[in-house]
Amino acid sequence: MTMDYPNPNFTEEVHVDLGTANVPALTGELSITAWVNPDNDGLADDNIIISKSDTTGNNGAFKLQLEEPDLELRGVINDSQITSSGTLVPGDWSFVAMVYDGSDKTLFINAVEDGSSAESGNIDIDSDPLLLGATDDGSIKREFDGPMADIRVYTRALSLAELQTMFALLGVDGIVDGLLWRWMQRELSPGTAATISDSIIDFAGNLNGTPVNSPVYQAGILR
């Protein structure tokens, strides 16, 4: 599996609806990673990276988001949240991750641990909507403010060494064991509007998506 994909990025006020995406492979372990470049509009609202939830609160099977106005990283597993002590820098790319190993859920910013709390049990997967860049409780809310790239979900707990490799190698790490989804953008020139159906490609499987609101592609951080 070639891991060197072109990577333009979709911009703010855009989301991707992936349906309910029932995932029986998820049981007692989960890892989510993403590259994000948040703006900071100073509003007391969330920037959702990925959400499988039917609420805008700290609920759902899993969720990874940034907290306005300081841009802390927050993760949710089975309605239980954890928030980082560190913050992201607006306008800079950061590599963020949440790892759940069946005993603890842990947050990482740029492959450095930044918060952990106890959590146990299988992940409660149901028919809640799965979205990139937003959440849905009857209407789309809390869309991510800024570009995102290379959002991945694994059915196991990634190690610190693996996260450090992913951070250092910018998308060409070759870490595919347990990879459930890996969303990248179809190759288009920066500045081109993304109007192609299924232009958000799941390079790990077949859960492609079409971004809403015709985002404009940008040059990416990844090789």
Structure description:
With 223 residues, the chain is mostly beta strands. The chain has one domain: Jelly Rolls (Sandwich), CATH 2.60.120. It has one helix spanning 160-169, and strands at 15-17, 30-36, 46-52, 62-67, 72-77, 80-87, 94-100, 104-109, 112-118, 130-132, 135-136, 140-141, 148-154, 179-185, 200-202, 211-212. β8 and β9 form a beta hairpin.
Question: Mind telling me the C-alpha Rg?
Answer: 16 Å
Biggest pleated sheet: 7 strands, antiparallel
The shape is: globular
Query: What fraction of residues sit in β-strands?
Result: 35-45%
The strand line-up of the biggest sheet is 6-5-4-3-10-1-16
Provide the helix percentage: under 10%
CATH topology: Jelly Rolls
Report the top-level CATH class: Mainly Beta
- The structural class is mainly beta
Low-confidence stretches: 1-8
* Overall strand count: 16
The CATH architecture would be: Sandwich
Order of helices and strands: EEEEEEEEEEEEEHEEE
- Whole-Å distance between the termini? 16 Å
- In the residues, how many domains can be counted? 1
Give me the number of helical elements.
1
- Averaged pLDDT: 82
